[in-house]
Amino acid sequence: MPLPEDTSTTRIRPWGKVTVLEEGPRYRINRIELNPGHHISTQMHYHRSEHWIVVSGTAKVICDGKETTLVQKQSTYVPMSTPHRVENPGVIPLLMIEVQNGEYLGEDDITRFPEDPES
């Protein structure tokens, strides 16, 4: 069941925005909007995995050094302790649903790699 509209959380980032749609013990579901030509920082998590589903747009995913392009209705799995990042190489916003699973989902479980100034 989605969170009531007044309790959902949207965080604006330099690359787009993240809205928490639902969360519970050991999971969180986010709506991620990534602006054209932007990307998230290269990062990894020690306590959670992620599953990304592309709703619209094109995603260039780099996971453990392997590059994959995903389009609408395609998805990928990001295991725990795996460096990853997503880019929007397209001309329209990339819209993804992210499902996080793990024993701990806090923001301090994000290890960002320093070669990337955009986070």
From TrEMBL:
Q: Look up keyword Disulfide bond and say if it applies.
A: no
Give the signal sequence positions. none
Task: Please report the stretch or stretches of sequence annotated as the Mannose-6-phosphate isomerase type II C-terminal domain.
Answer: 9-113
Its name, as the record gives it, is Phosphomannose isomerase type II C-terminal cupin domain
Report the Pfam families cross-referenced here. Answer: MannoseP_isomer (PF01050)
Provide this UniProt record's keywords sorted from A to Z.
Isomerase
According to the lineage, what is the superkingdom?
A: Bacteria
Q: Which SUPFAM superfamilies match?
A: RmlC-like cupins (SSF51182)
Q: Which GO terms describe its molecular function?
A: isomerase activity
